[in-house]
From TrEMBL:
PANTHER family: MITOCHONDRIAL RIBOSOME PROTEIN L39/PROLYL-TRNA LIGASE FAMILY MEMBER, PROLINE--TRNA LIGASE. Gene3D superfamilies: Anticodon-binding domain, Bira Bifunctional Protein, Domain 2. This is Proline--tRNA ligase. It comes from Bacillus kandeliae. InterPro entries: aa-tRNA-synt_IIb (IPR002314), aa-tRNA-synth_II (IPR006195), aa-tRNA-synth_II/BPL/LPL (IPR045864), Anticodon-bd (IPR004154), Anticodon-bd_dom_sf (IPR036621), Pro-tRNA-ligase_IIa (IPR002316), Pro-tRNA-synth_IIa_bac-type (IPR004500), Pro-tRNA-Synthase_IIa_type1 (IPR023717). The keyword Glycoprotein does not apply. It holds the Pfam family tRNA-synt_2b. GO terms for molecular function: proline-tRNA ligase activity. The keyword Transcription does not apply. Consists of three domains: the N-terminal catalytic domain, the editing domain and the C-terminal anticodon-binding domain. Its EC number is 6.1.1.15. It is found in: Cytoplasm. It is an enzyme of class 6 (ligase). It catalyses: tRNA(Pro) + L-proline + ATP = L-prolyl-tRNA(Pro) + AMP + diphosphate.
Amino acid sequence: MKQSQTLIPTLRETPADAEVKNHQLLLKAGFIRQNASGVYSYLPLGKKVLRKVEEIVREEMDAAGAVELLMPALQQAELWQESGRWYTYGPELMRLKDRHDREFALGATHEEVITSLVRDEIKSYKRLPLTLYQIQTKFRDEKRPRFGLLRGREFVMKDAYSFHASQESLDEVYDRLFTAYSNVFRRCGLNFRAVIADSGAMGGKDTHEFMVLSDIGEDTIAYSDQSNYAANIEMAPVVTTYEKSDESEKEKEKVVTPNAKTIEDVSALLNVAPEKCIKSLLFKVDEEYVLVLARGDHEVNDIKLKNLLQADQVELALPETVSDILGCSIGSLGPVDMKGDVKVIADHAVQAITNLVCGANEEGFHYINVNAERDFTVDQYADLRFIQEGDASPDGQGTIKFAKGIEVGHVFKLGTRYSEAMNATYLDENGRTQPMIMGCYGIGVSRTLAAVAEQFNDEKGFIWPKALTPYDVHLVPINMKDDHQRELAEQLYDLLREKRFDVLMDDRAERPGVKFADSDLIGLPVRITVGKKASEGIVEVKVRSTGETIEVPKEQLVTALDELLRTIS
């Protein structure tokens, strides 16, 4: 492709609203352009990389026994109402009505559509297992689109769904697709880890996320410093055993704590360590309110609370709700002598504290020397806090460290969550009706592109891995008005294309400095410069990743490129 015949609108300045490296470079190098907040056009270079990611995904999915199809982005509300998610998915689901006032959603995901499709076509266990996938644009009304393609309102996703007659069959396909996902991200050159995760709005259990390690990641990974254990921080269990001190219990006392509303305030005012205080938080769990207690230096993990109570939705109660139900403000909330009748659940660490400090349910007052069971009742103890760095690894090997990650893939064992709700059944070998067992598997294709862009760059621009580069070679004649340079460049352009190299030729009437800057910015693996020695048939070949430069006669160019590209990862 000749640069004068395509659209590569490079920029000299970094766009002011681009916060992270991949977003900045994708805009500067002319790979994407923003149309609206969280909505982008993929320009020719961006589309070529996107297509290469898709090709890798297809190859690995096909090899794993999945079959491609394409489902509609416009989905009937009735399907989402069958599954129950029309009411629980939240404001991220883009909803609309047609001219006949019928309700639809723009596909955020396709569990409902695929389940309805398979239930109408598959009736016997003999047709199972079956794994279907698609690569398609998805829509989610993100509250705060950010980081370019990493969190948008319109994005490209590969989603797959498997249907089974047994748990063993699901486990087998899950493991096969787990391996396929690992292959995809490895082939894309990414530094990633598969971590234990929460299924969120998808439902089901037994799920893993594939995280690309990056300082700009929005997710925190908890991993062992001595083993392969890794989990999303939301899902990492705390295995610490808390020893109760031999301190004798003291008399409970109400003390004045003016303007002390946080653990830090109370700790400083009363000169007690935060771990001797407890924080009391009121949560709305589906339609029930629950008071959750945690040690002052710990943070309550709402995902653990949700999973413990097998709830669909968990949210922190608003200040006015706390006042209405418990008759006090958030800053003075505590489990002693509560006015409201709510269930009390505490993290295990609370049970081990002797003579703790808590809110007195009265503005400006706290209790000291409070002890569980003597002064208040806990309905249930459980692991309810976020794991912390330095905690013991849940697998018993080493201690926990944190890293940031960008989620690029997610695999779920859905079970019968959707098949039971939507009556997707089959006849087993005994002629009995059974619900299909399901799995679900997603890869953010456009997000993978952005994750690669985030990892493969330097101060000059991109350094695309060979598997995803938009072109193999950047052919750069310095001066197209020079007859020797122009003729040699045209000869090499035709020769390399004939030899099946994907070539981008910069035939623009630009200064050499502009051409070289754009070449580094675009970041193709090899640059061939046709310059002063064109009359001798000699060109300069430069490897983008290492900066290595060699002079090569035109007769040896194909051999030299073959050798160089073999050594480039």
